[in-house]
Design goal:
By secondary structure, the chain is of the alpha+beta class. Helices cover about 65% and strands about 15% of the residues. A hairpin with a 5-residue loop joins strand 2 and strand 3. Helix 1 packs across helix 3 and helix 1 packs across helix 4. It is elongated and about 55 Å long.
Length: about 120
């Protein structure tokens, strides 16, 4: 396999990981109530202690993808600022996906923790 193809595959895998992580964050932010896109971005930002900021160029394509997968529904409403906005709601399929994604995330965090701190992994 050529280096260019290997580099492209590595980049595609990285994008998929980022999209998967963003999907998890979006689903998690909608677990209690419907929100509009700006509110979802704010929930992720404030929930991460201002560390994570999702750009609109990433957020809205992700929301559209999740609606297409039927993990979210979307309907127009009026925001707190009295502006017309699309509100996203978690579906039953989205709730089930959130549980799966949270389990996968926990496994990933545990695995990375073992790599980063091998001494702890040996004690288990």
């Amino acid at each position: 396999m050529s280096t260019a193809i290997a580099d492209r595959k590595a980049y595609q895998n990285r994008i998929e990981l980022l999209q998967g992580t963003l999907d998890l964050l979006i689903l998690q932010s909608l677990r209690w109530e419907p929100q509009h896109g700006y509110g979802i971005g704010q929930a992720i930002r404030s929930g991460s202690g201002e560390v994570l900021q999702v750009e609109t160029g990433s957020l809205y394509p992700a929301l559209h993808r999740l609606v297409k997968r039927e993990w979210l529904t979307a309907e127009w409403g009026v925001s707190e600022a009295n502006q017309r906005a699309k509100f996203y709601r978690l579906t039953a399929a989205g709730k089930a996906q959130l549980l799966r994604e949270r389990d996968r995330w926990s496994q990933l965090v545990d695995a990375i923790g073992r790599v980063m701190n091998p001494a702890l992994a040996r004690k288990e």
